[in-house]
Amino acid sequence: MPLLPLGQTVLGAACMTAWGDFNDAAPLPDEGLNELPIAGQIALDRLPGAGQPMPAAVGSIAPDIEQIAAFLEVVFGYCDGLIPVRGFVDHGQGLDTKPHNIWVPADRHAAASLSAYATWAAREGSAVYVIPGTVAEQGQARAEHVLQMQTVVVDLDAGDIAAKLAHLVHHLGPPTLLVESGGRTAEGAAKLHAWWRLTEPAEGEDLARLCTLRGEIAEKVGGDLHFRSAHQPIRVPGTIHQKHGVQRRVTIREHRPRVEVELPDFAAAVAAMPTMPGLAAPTAAPGATRPGLDAVLTTPVREAAQDAWTRFQGASAAIGHFVRMVHEGRITGDEGWEAICQYNAACLRPAWPLDRLKTEADAIWALHVDRNGQPLLRAAAPPHSAIAAHTLGALLDDKSPMPDDLIGPRLLTPGGMLVLGGAPKVGKSDFLISLLVHAAAGAPFLRFTAPRPLRVFYLQAEIQYHYLRERLQQLRLDPAVVARARDTLVVTPKLRMLLDDQGVPLVAAAIRAAFPDAPPDIICIDPIRNLFDGGPAGEGENDNAAMMFFLQGRVEALRDQVAPEAGIILAHHTKKLSKQQVKDDPFLSLSGASALRGYYTSGAILFRPDEDQTERELHVELRNGPGLEPMLVDKIAGRWVEFDRRGERLVRQDIGRKLDAERLRKQDVILGILLDEAAEGRLYSTMQLAEKFENKVGLGSKHTIRERLSVLATKGFVKFRRDGTEFGLGVVRSRFGYLCVEGMTFGPEIETVDPQTGEVTTSARRVLPSHFKCPQSGNCLDVENPEVWVYPEGVLDDLTPEELGLTPHSSPKTTP
């Protein structure tokens, strides 16, 4: 239920205009154009044209035409109209002259014209500024006259310039142009202008949006707030800075001509960028009428300054209100944070990300404490009941049904905790995702079952959004399972946070937002390491006290806030132990403090016993039920499956696998030889083939070849044909006959002529079997239908995948 009254009287837009109007740029000298003397204006036709010589500069530093040209390309390269150029005498020179203004067409001659003006200005002790937008006519230079702008600029002129620039680059990307304006801060750092070029000029409403962005960036990094105004001028690189008689060239430090941004994308990045730590929330302009608190807390506000105030202004006011209430002890910290989250969800369109909301709240809280002293924090309500205790008789007499397992059998019980451990890259997260999807669908997974579709919140801090969705889309799951789990499994992309005093309420709010109607059944945290908070001492996960603090003070606290009966699943890494140590006691491999093993209600370890094989072993220990036998699992065709361990070798496993591979190789070679030889017009009996190919292509002796042929005949890969007269051969009087395999053809194709039409066709002469070896008795029996290659009943069920279709001689086979 909302804590704030909705539907109260909202102030009209008219009374909000002054509060939201931040166009407080300082008035420029003699801004009234009608008062500017004619002598103070430089006639454009007096400047050198393209190809004409430039006037000589006066002073030790001359303007740089190349830098001027580069600047004009970035700031005006896509614009049409006139560039307002303004010349102001730099302070501290003892000069007192009027500004001198010109309007330069934004065309290919602009660099030459502006360079000539810069040379004249340097001689006169004037600095050269431009308004970074174009106007339609000469004499126009006010904000309402600006028609086009193609850049977003921020002026960093105070404080820690390097930190501010790093903050901008981290959140907005590197700028197209970075300019040293020539000035220095009190600490001696160079003042900077950062420019981002748009892909096309902004006009109309987009132009107003661009100016709002310039103001919001300046507010968040402590830049010059005058750039909220479209007509605010700025120095031109390549010209001379001459304050206090010290000459410095305004210099381009970095130029990235290919860096361009889309205005909507850049606006979204600015909205997501947090205010730099230590900066105060922006305040209204002097004399502005601030709206009532009720209006701020109940009025929806959209992005891109579409309303009477911005999302940033509204959020700052709301956060400040609730921070003050917490500081005065009228509500608890958790209640204050919940109210801030509710304002965010109800009024900001679209809502801010929770991590940005937390950053802004922390900054305003720190500023409020600094100004008003330590808070009067409200104590949490005492527990409603004492510690539960039961007599032996009561426990023996309680015959009520046991609660249903969340994931059975007893893998995860209500209020229980499952820890899933595994080495990096063993498939732990993939296995966990499959388990959670099936739990969310109420479907069985391997031996594990859920009684119904469960509500699952998966807090994961490893996989970024795009790779997370790729992994989920690669799962080969039953479409019915996916359909049931679409809305009951909620997954976070990679988080950069800790489960600390701020992180726990942040996650709790996200869980409540994901499941507003009913609490979740399972809360999964993957992995522990990326979210671990060891408490005030700051110890790591290897410290028992820190681990217990994290489990009780963070994980259990999170569960208590949102769903006391929910099951917890924690994904955790394992230590580097030998294979034998892991097999002896898999749960000793869990990374970190031993307190973890004593705390959970069930544990599972996934590890690969042989690095050369894909199979994994899953060991499970339960405190609330009997232990489970270890499972041998693997991911086949995108799905996790369990293997029957009864077919697993117990001794000499390595040599066994090599022998299996060698038998499969010989099988492929023998079948390939039979096909190739028949295609060249040669058929063989068993003995003749064995004798001819003895010790060739790695087949071994004739006895080895005969043994392999006997096995292949029993499995149905090889059959026989006694009558070879059709192929120019005799009738074999041996027990079996000529060897025959599926798809065999004899010699080259032959031509046949239709006697009625005269049509000539070619066809291969197929070698069809007449007899086969009985897999039970070993006797030679007649083939009923030579056209259909039939395998003995049940034989295909015992064949390996390689025997079923991975050999080169045939396509995958099925029993008819």
From TrEMBL:
It holds the Pfam family AAA_25. It comes from the Bacteria. This is AAA family ATPase. InterPro entries: P-loop_NTPase. Gene3D superfamilies: P-loop containing nucleotide triphosphate hydrolases, RepB DNA-primase, N-terminal domain.
